[in-house]
Every structure is written in structure tokens, then in C-alpha cells.
Amino acid sequence: MKTQGLTSIFSVVTIAATSLLTTLIFSDQTNAQIAFFPFIAIPSYPYEPSNRQQNEPSDRQKEAITYYKQGGEYLKQEKWDLAISSYNQAITLEPTLLEAYNNRGVVYQNQGKLDLAVADYTKAIELSPNYASAYQNRAIVYHKQQQLPLALADYNKLIDLAPDNAIAYNNRAMIYEGQGKLDLAITDYTKAIQYQPEFPQAYHNRGIAYKMQQKPELAIADFTKAIEVNPNYASAYGNRGLTYSELGKWNLALADYGKTIQLEPNDPIVYYNRGNLYAQQKKWNLALSDFDKAIQLNPDYESAYYNRGLVYSRQQKHDLAIADYTKAIELNSNFAWAYFNRGTGYMFKREFKTAKDDFQEAAQLFQTQRNQLGYQKAMERLQRLQLLMND
């Protein structure tokens, strides 16, 4: 499982053109905030079911426990099919062996068979309504499936049953964060840290929440703490680098991006973010190199095509810029600024009819998206274009 994720934010760069067109402008857009939270299923350890009866277990029950333990060994070895076979045998012999349902659910979850996992966790809960591990595991599956109300209900129940469960607070906070309830999210991340002070993901995630609240110093402090706890936490370096970049601390940002790339050399977002920083510094060739790498790693990375197009525009390589804006539009037909800047490229090439079509499309999209600045710029560009066409 890939646990790396970076927040990705366009750097605002105004690119000089000629006196004919004044400036190229592109939007300040923010990709989804991505924070790691542990989607880790919890088997019942040790491999000994809880004692729910006073009498000596029957031979059938003893045999069920043997299969259950065998399934646990296979689970540890990631021999999924053998583990399921053993748990099936255990459940056939002892249908109330709730730990077997939980652990079989863990196996299904690891196989990506999430509906089967939910069914097993639900059965375990039916057998024992206060079985915390099953609530945690089911909540995690619901969370992965984006069934957030169900996940939230299970996290709430888990916290009722286990008030010191740090993962429950961390994961519930992720839901709150996605809902824009940042104060609730920060409260839960803080609770997670209170109960598990060496929980790097909770520091990292709280840092992102602080960043969303425009509290960069608090965000940097949390990213730094996450790195202290886990010196190989690539996401924390990447997000701290992004925050440094926004504060204009470019050398610190570059150092963090470099460390991120060292740890996660195949993550396109860090190259994209570093490319934006190089563009801010007007180091165009370095920016191009990073955007190239981001696109190589993710051929559908619309933002990287768009920003690479901006750099090509700055270098007066209008055909290359137009090609990149076109690709960005193919990937996102509502990308108003891509239409706007592609239209500008066509103006440079004196392909006025095509430029007009792009500016009109951009204006319509800006109006639909209630982007007054963009709409105003598109209308100004149309007026300027009309003057050129009349010459």
C-alpha cells in the first residue's frame, strides 16, 4: 500500500508576454488535501479466542480453535487462500467463533474483497455487539469505500468502546477534515496524539488541517514533529516543503522536496510542486524538467501539462504551449484557464478565429464557475482580439 500523499497547490506565476498581450494569468487552484490514515485491518491477537464459556470446550470446539490458530499463522504469512480455508473450517465447526469472522474479514480486506470483509465484521459484531476490533475494521473498510456516514458511525461506536483508541480519533478526524469541519478534525487529531504521542500520521494530518486554516507555522511544527518520529515520512517532508515554499523560504522548500524525492522517487506530485517552485524562481529549464518527470510518472496529470504550457509560453514556444493546454483540456474540459492561455497562444500565432473560440469558451466557463476575475480577463482579451482582427 502506498502511504505517500502530498498536498499540491498551483504556484501563482504571472508570465510576461509582449506589449501586445500584457500578461498571461492562470488560476490559483488547490488539489485535494491528501493525508495518510492507517487503513490497517486488526486481526485478533494472540490467536486464542476469548473465553466466553465456563465449561470445558467440546472436542468440536477444540478442533475449531486449532483451525482458527492455523488460520492465524497463514494470515501472518500472507497466505490468504490457506487462511480463508482454515477460518472456514473453524466457523463450520463453531459458528459463534467471532474472532474467526473478524480475521477472515481481515484476509478479505487484504485481498480487496471489501464487501465480503464487511459481511464478516458485521457478523462478528452481531455475535458480540461490543467487539471493538470489528468496529474498527469495518469503519476502515467503509472509509475506503467512501461510505462516510457508516464509517463515522463505526468510529463513534469504537470511541465509546475504547476511548483511548488513537487510530479511531485520527480516522474520524479525516472525515471531519473532508467535510470542512477543521476545528473538529484538529480536536480529534490532538486526542490521537494525546493517547499515542509517537503517532506520526496524526501530527502530519493535523499539520494539513492547520495549513488549510492558513496557520503555516503550526503546520510546519506538526510536519517537523512527524519527521522527528519517523525520519522517513515522505509526505511530511513534501507538505513541509510546500508550506515553506508558500512562505517564500525556497531553500528550505527545495531541501524538503529533495528529501521527498529521495524517499519516494516515483511520486509525481513532488516533482510537480518542485517544478512550481522553480517556475516562481524563473528557473524555466529546471521547472520543465520537473513537469516532464511528473507527466512521465502520471500521463493524466492535467495540472502538470497546464503549468508546463505556461513555461513554454514564457519561452515563446507557442506550439508546445498550445499542445500542453490542449492536453489539459482533454483531461478536464472545464479547465477555463487552459482555454484562456491556449487562446493567448493562438493570438501570438495570429490565428485569430481559433483564439476567439477559446476566449469565448473561457469566458463562458468562468461565468459558470463564478470566477469574476477570469471572466473579466477573458472579456478584455476578446476586446483586444477584436481590435487586432479589425487592423
TrEMBL record:
Keywords: Repeat, TPR repeat. SMART domains: TPR. One of its GO terms (cellular component) is cell outer membrane. Pfam families: TPR_1 (PF00515), TPR_11 (PF13414), TPR_8 (PF13181). It comes from the Bacteria. InterPro entries: TPR-like_helical_dom_sf, TPR_rpt, Ycf3. TPR repeats lie at residues 64-97, 98-131, 132-165, 166-199, 200-233, 234-267, 268-301, 302-335, 336-369. Signal peptide: none annotated. The keyword Metal-binding does not apply. PROSITE patterns: TPR, TPR_REGION. One of its GO terms (biological process) is receptor-mediated virion attachment to host cell. This is TPR repeat.
